[in-house]
Design brief:
The protein is an alpha/beta fold. The protein is about 40% helix and about 15% strand.
């Protein structure tokens, strides 16, 4: 996908879909601003990206910390002069518990990261996009936000919130040149798998396998490109024809 001259900020960039997206965007010509809690893995990714681009900034960031987000985005904008693309990928999901087993602290942490973290980063980036009348925002949601997953009520609730957030924000800003969409992956290959083309068997899709990092990244890159210039306010499922459960 052609992304020459674009600057993309990706949260949760060190592993999984975030890493695959960084690699694919770099191959497409984009400059990158990468955020993650794990600075060591970010540093390794920057080295990996060196064969495609030297224009990579990396920042250790907990997106649930609004002050830190604001400072990092301000610094990134000073260095790059703009952010054309925002990929809100960072989130937490691990841990299967019934609703009655999930503590209030767990509920708060999931919303602080998955919802408010996305709000903070988007709010920090959006004004500069509106000033330039150009932007692409892609929120990484989940099929859990569409169907609801048993023993993942807190995660399902946050991803459903992201889908609603996407649709509502798109209606505010699409006429001003900023296109907001969501992608909802189904079963995804393990995030610590270095091969972004890796898949493994899965009974959760009719295709019988997980989706690879590159497959998810390709959809994100398309929505981030000018080829997707008439798509806004959508939640696109990428789930191998998911078996609803």
């Amino acid at each position: 996908m052609k992304l020459q001259g674009r600057v993309a900020l990706i949260t949760g960039a060190a592993v999984g879909i975030g890493r695959a997206t960084a690699l694919e965007m770099a191959r497409g010509g984009a400059s990158l601003v990468l955020l993650d809690l794990d600075f060591n893995k970010l540093s390794a990714l920057k080295d990996e990206l060196a064969s495609y681009t030297d224009n990579v900034q990396i920042y250790q960031c907990d997106i649930s910390d609004e002050e830190s987000v604001n400072q990092i985005v301000a610094t990134a904008l000073e260095v790059t002069g703009k952010i054309d693309i925002l990929v809100n990928n960072a989130g937490i999901w691990r841990g299967a518990k019934t609703f009655l087993e999930i503590s209030s602290a767990d509920w708060k942490r999931y919303f602080d990261v998955n919802v408010m973290g996305t709000v903070y980063v988007t709010r920090a980036v959006l004004p500069s996009m509106l000033d330039r009348e150009y932007g692409r925002i892609i929120n990484v949601a989940s099929v859990a936000g569409v169907y609801g997953n048993a023993k993942m009520t807190q995660y399902s609730a946050t991803k459903g919130a992201l889908i609603a957030f996407t649709k509502a924000l798109a209606k505010e800003v699409s006429a001003k040149g900023v296109l907001v969409n969501a992608v909802s992956p189904g079963s995804v290959s393990p995030s610590d798998q270095p091969d972004i083309d890796y898949t493994q068997p899965s009974e959760l899709s009719f295709m019988g396998r997980t989706g690879s990092g590159r497959e998810n990244a390709n959809l994100i890159c398309f929505l981030a490109s000018d080829e997707a210039s008439y798509i806004a306010g959508q939640n696109i499922q990428i789930d191998g024809c998911r078996k609803k459960q």
